[in-house]
Write a structure and sequence with these properties.
Elements lengths: L2 H15 L1 E3 H13 L4 H8 L12 E3 H14 L5 H5 L10 H8 L4 H10 L8 E8 L2 E8 L7 H19 L7 E3 L8 H7 L3 E2 L6 E5 L12 H21 L2 H12 L7 H8 L3 H12 L3 H18 L5 H7 L5 H12 L3 H7 L1
Parallel strand pairs: 5-6
Antiparallel strand pairs: 1-2, 3-4, 4-7, 5-7
Length: about 350
């Protein structure tokens, strides 16, 4: 079997496994219905009924969620509907067990850390990261792989995060800056109203705020609930980790670090808590593929997904794939697909 065929099979399997918890999907379907969209329209757009979403710990294909993200703005005749949904206070159930874990923590820093740690219990296509740089903290959020990226996912995540921040710090809290990877949308006025200092065409989607705020005590902390729910979350996460192949883990790390331009086998091995020889051996035994082949194939697949997704500007895709120059990305894309990125996008 050739490397190309092996990679195609692997990526098809990964797409089939991309999921989101039923609690999040059900919560936001109900919010959209409460906003005035009919139940039939929401269920029709999602391709799943509310009656099928009873177990909050169950996972369903993320395609259902993406479908309502794309359909709801038109159904509501409101392009900013997901920013508005993020301002509705519905408690911790909106993000399933992840929300309950975060709400029970002692400090906001711990809440962020645990939300990131258990993020796969919400969805395995969401990437969250917290950085502490100087006097600022940076909360980073995106969807990976790019085939699952939507503007609506960022709008909801950031609007919901800021709503929770205001709950903790008071209504007078404002972030220092809010960055978005994409160009200003048609409803940009709503961004400036809700996010205040919104900046577009940035390298990452992130909320920047004062680092010292992370040390604030969580007024909603529940120590007993913290212990019970975290043990439950540990069990759920352990089950998910057991089902994840080494190839999928390596691809996730490659996707995360490509934009940072610092990717190598040593970094991947460190992230996995293995030696580089162990990573090589596991990849070989599992799929008879080398790390370099997986890196090249992942970059090629991501290039295709990014170009197919019109939310990404062609000028920013080179950065997201770890190329130092646009010209290097264009040459590589032409070599892979025998078309320039612009030609390929025009045909999709």
């Amino acid at each position: 079997m050739t490397v190309g065929i092996k990679l195609n099979i692997l990526f098809r399997l990964m797409i089939m496994k991309n999921e989101i918890c039923t609690a999040a999907l059900k919560n936001d379907m109900l919010l959209l219905i409460n906003s005035g969209i009919s139940k039939n329209d929401i269920e029709g757009a999602a391709g799943i009924s509310l009656a099928q979403l009873n177990d909050p710990d169950e996972m369903v294909a993320v395609d259902h969620y993406i479908a309502i993200e794309k359909a709801a703005p038109e159904l509501a005749n409101n392009p900013g509907i997901f920013i508005e949904l993020g301002r509705v206070k519905t408690g911790t159930s909106q993000t399933g067990v992840l929300g309950h874990v975060a709400a029970a923590c002692e400090t906001l820093l711990e809440s962020f850390q645990q939300a990131i740690r258990f993020s796969r219990l919400l969805s395995n296509v969401n990437r969250m990261e917290l950085r502490e740089e100087g006097y600022l903290a940076e909360f980073v959020f995106t969807r990976e792989p790019p085939a699952f990226f939507t503007i609506q996912s960022i709008e909801l995540a950031f609007s919901r995060t800021l709503t929770l921040m205001k709950d903790l710090w008071g209504d007078n809290f404002e972030p220092n800056e809010v960055h978005f990877q994409y160009s200003p949308p048609e409803h940009v006025e709503l961004y400036h109203k809700i996010f205040k200092n919104a900046q577009f065409n940035q390298p990452e989607n992130q909320i920047l705020f004062l680092r010292k705020l992370l040390l604030r005590k969580n007024p909603f902390r529940q120590p007993y609930v913290d212990d019970v729910i975290r043990k439950h979350a540990e069990k759920l996460l352990e089950k998910k980790t057991e089902k994840t192949t080494i190839q999928q883990q390596v691809i996730a790390i490659i996707t995360k670090y490509l934009p940072k331009g610092q990717l190598n086998i040593e970094l991947v091995a460190s992230e996995l808590g293995m030696s580089r020889q162990t990573v090589f051996r596991k990849l070989k035994s599992e799929a008879e593929i080398s790390f370099q082949e997986l890196l090249d194939g992942t970059r090629m697949q991501l290039a295709k997904d990014y170009v197919n997704n019109s939310d990404f500007m062609l000028t920013e895709i080179a950065y997201l794939l770890g190329f130092s120059e646009n010209s290097a990305f264009h040459r590589a894309f032409k070599r892979w697909f025998n078309k320039t990125p612009r030609e390929y996008r025009s045909l999709s």
